[in-house]
Design a protein that fits this description.
By secondary structure, this protein is mainly β. Helices cover 13% and strands 61% of the residues. A 10-stranded antiparallel β-barrel has the order 1-2-3-4-5-6-7-8-9-10.
Length: 180
């Protein structure tokens, strides 16, 4: 029996466990009656600042960053220009083109997002899933993001993202957005 045929079932089992454990088992339906209602295009229109940390799978903080975001709404499209400033001095920009589909549903693309992202809002929560071509050293890894955003009091938006590669969680990102 080949090693690969032994490894495949174990990898599939690990993928199933990791996928179902993301976001602590949260479902969008549990936020339907939240006291605050998140409307992405309203929240991100104008200027927003965010601060975040990128932790590896062992909980070690690997990067810290600030993001200045400019949001523009034209018709049924929200454009977000994100300017990242990492603590190590690196700078980066990502531009999201997000289609507002109605009924709390969204679809978006960005330069490093090879397949359109899909997301949905329910109450004060937004779940957004997509793949990113992430630069890691001299390589580029295609990783999955399972983002959960929660609108809190005082227009603070908390984002917890679970990052996977080959179905296995490799990192988590925590971001706090603050409206200007």
């Amino acid at each position: 029996m080949k090693f690969s045929s032994l490894l495949l079932p174990a990898l599939l089992a690990a993928t199933a466990v990791t996928t179902t454990s993301c976001a602590s088992g949260s479902t969008l339906q549990q936020f339907e009656t939240a006291p605050r209602q998140l409307v992405l295009e309203d929240y991100f229109k104008g200027e927003t600042t965010a601060y975040g940390v990128f932790e590896d799978r062992f909980g070690k903080v690997r990067r810290q960053f600030k993001v200045n975001i400019t949001g523009e709404v034209k018709g049924n499209r929200l454009t977000l220009t994100e300017k990242f400033e990492y603590d190590d001095g690196e700078r980066d920009t990502r531009v999201w083109e997000i289609d507002i589909l109605g009924n709390g549903q969204y679809r978006g693309t960005a330069g490093d997002v090879p397949v359109p992202a899909v997301g949905q809002v329910s109450g004060n929560a937004f779940n957004w899933r997509y793949k990113v071509d992430l630069k890691v050293g001299d390589s580029v890894w295609n990783v999955g993001f399972d983002d959960w955003m929660f609108l809190m009091q005082d227009d603070v938006l908390i984002n917890r993202a679970y990052v996977t590669r080959y179905g296995i969680e490799i990192a988590q990102v925590t971001i706090a957005f603050n409206k200007k």
